[in-house]
């Protein structure tokens, strides 16, 4: 069936064709984008698996560790002290074999990798090899979920504070380019070269060891208060130093970055024009500086949100904060592949979704952007 | 302009502060600790039950000294600061000896115990690639490395003087070392640091192996430098890296080229243990071992075979590639298998084996690292000298504030709840076990004898809930009695009675008797008979309020067999391995009376100390874990395991993809609570065919009701009979609260005699000049905290006379004069052996109540 194309018939079919064309374009874009992102996730996760097990060398390492651990464990156990040497020897060998089987080392590496990949993609996170959750479960899902609130609390508060305060202050500084505060921020921006855990150590020394006003670490006092209000206060008390160290380590550089970014946009011709037209500076900021920078700010914010998932490994360790960063760090040390893969796949899916959604959000906040064009 | 200058100044200040911080001086090495600090109380006489001499003031308090113990996870690096700040009172996990100066500077107290053994493991194989020379395939070169290593330097520089140099395959200054003190000291003198001697031996041996010294002073073989692949551990406590670097420097100084390969444990194991020694992928490795319990350290004769011989139970490289001297091989094997008939014979074999071990030197020992657990000065801590506070069974009994009864003590440790807690296949991590011990009655370190209490200072055992014990062993075995609380005798043959329980029939849920399994009769090497108090079942209570019962004893015993039987609904293949292994030497249990409870045990396995062969039954973990078994808790856990919802062991849980049983937290609790309701509703008696003979339905109802109430009150199923009960558990926050158990049968001062180790301080005084050929007298003063050490508390005082070269001239025993006073009289014959020059007299005081001797020496001038 042919479609009438005569201009005389009116503009309706043209509009419909345009709409169809947009729908087709967007649908095609979505399909291609989803496939591309999925392929990226598959490749990323498979690479993670390959890297985490060092292309199979981890098997050799783990077998060596099992042998050493089992042998030393049995030799040191009181009951083995009184065993006949042959019996003890057989016990060692059998236990090693059993432990290798439990860890799946008897299954070919290619099969295991494929299994890990499939399970990861279907979000079947499975069971950890060595680690357990604090409550004693070996399910990766529970291990990660147990640590998630602590990480979200620490990272959420510190990163969101950092993000919004940086934008607010940077915008102010960009308006007062060259004044004392601007120069102070520029001067202090190299302090961000120091990692947060370094600040953490100093903060612990000052506020916990010297002044004795804040705790050395942990998430809540021991034993945790029964009363919800006291519990919250204790939590806040324990949160202060790790959050402060995370904020301090990025504060000035973050302001400096946004301030520079805003300065670039502030010197655009249309901003000068707006100023020349006598618009109020708040309006200039909001309409002519902030608006065109929105896609970048939204991108930063979206990536910040998913970065919360990864935690702050060393800072969490310094403050004994029971977060995901420490868990993943421990998993890497123990070659606990299911936990590494589990955390990676969740991050990968979140990243893919964010990237996917950002394309649409860009077109909403910036009329110049068209999805799939 | 002004602002600009201010900015510059500010920037410069920041940069300067960073540079200054980086340039801060390193912590200076300090002197080695000579004795562990401790608070004061009396010490048990070796021949008396310690409760006869309570040193602390009388108290009416039952259970532990404290009202409450709060345990939480604390970073070891901040432990000292946290004690100073009052955030915690005691850090129970052992800190490495590099922290010792910090603890000392902080002015707080500390425990001191054995941490790890470090040394050099050598590849003894001749390499398959004949173009490559392995100098360490030559025993004499391995032996020479002992002279190449200045152990005192390593201790001072790397371990801040806080550890003990080690030369021998026995723990420095512990039971075996003390036992062979003259041999040990003589060998230490012979193998003292002597660079020239090491070089001399290497210079003589290398050419004989076909190597030649190049013009650059480096050994060459087949035209290439003799390069040693040195695996140096860079992880762990960080001390093995500088130790490896030191040794590499020394080897380079005598002409070797060293390829230093810094690796972590996971990188090293596949090479060290995983490659054939003759493949030549490594020459040396900075190895380390963790000590076993104190009980096992009392007899280290097995260490010869384990550390040097191809028959080592480690059964891996590099041991299996070592071709040892025939005499050494025979001695090591005989010592491991107990092929000797008296202590004297054994000691002579050990003394010779020590000499030969240094000639073999497959493993060159370097240091016994000490660990330190700091605590506030107003806290009293009792600790096991070999394994530290967390492994001390008597520790929780004596933990207290020195200036008060009661109070809340805050304890920090390395971790908590690392694995699920249950007594069948649960957590055995030191920090978890340390807490569990506070909830239990007491355990002997060796063999895990319940109802006994391990002596933290000697490794022996004392009766805790045992009235009397009798040990009978087969004639010809070398077993020695040290304490008077048990009677010991020998018999030509020990027959196991026909009605003794020797195995378990899981299908019929009944015991298999000796008569049934061994119709032709059964014999054993050792028999022990243990009698419990008359009022045992009235006085000992579980933390949930239930009195302990026969059902607890029998259920605990069944639990040690049933999971190993394929017919059992709770069969666990991983437990079957150790259960089957244990059955080889196990010869039976027999309950001869329940009022008073009297239990006989029969076994073929034995250790050389009689006290550690007594095998009382107690409702505690049958798998060597630190916890007790109320039969009700086992019953509901078994029901959950039968239903396939939980599994005691990680292995079974992983295979079945179910949760690992935890009695303190996690998803297990809900499942266990469900089965508690079910069991209570059915008045369920597990293994009823057998346990039904000991447990009535009424008892079952009462016990389940008490457990249910306990769970409602405390939110977990960890129930024990010890001086403290587990009140609250916070698995995610990683903290817990222990509270005093006021229904505990004993007063808080029950084990006050072990409040601190009675380490002797010794002063030696005598002439500054001795004429060869004439008699010389030296006075020894032995004190404990300014009080004379009683003669009855000292096993012996040895003296060792060295000449100017450090060679041992004579060895003898000092003469007792009075309490705290001994005298050494060097005879004219002994002094005549001294050449003109300086000489040294050393004395070693060996107390009975502590396994650590004290040493002192005096230098004098010998003249002709």
Derived structural class of chain A: mainly alpha
The tally of strands of chain B reads 40
Oligomeric composition of the shown chains: heterodimer
- Give the helix tally of chain B: 26
SSE pattern of chain A: HHHHHHHHHHHHHH
Distance between the termini of chain A: 28 Å
Mean pLDDT of chain A: 84
| Class based on secondary structure composition and strand pairing of chain B | alpha+beta
Describe the model.
The complex is a heterodimer of chains A (373) and B (864). With 373 residues, chain A is mainly α. Chain A has 14 helices and no strands. Chain A has helices at 12-52, 57-76, 78-81, 85-102, 109-121, 140-175, 180-188, 196-210, 228-266, 269-276, 281-307, 313-318, 324-333, 337-365. In chain A, helix 5 (109-121) packs parallel to helix 14. The longest helix of chain A has 41 residues, at 12-52. Residues 1-10 of chain A have low confidence and may be disordered. By secondary structure, chain B is an alpha+beta fold. Chain B is 29% helix and 25% strand. In chain B, strands 3, 4, 5, 9, 10, 11 and 12 form a 7-stranded mixed sheet that branches. Chain B has a 5-stranded mixed sheet with strand order 2-15-1-30-29. In chain B, helix 4 packs antiparallel against helix 8 (195-208). Chain B starts with a helix and ends with a strand. Chains A and B meet through helix 2, helix 3, helix 4, helix 7 and helix 8 of A and helix 1, strand 1, helix 2, helix 10 and helix 20 of B.
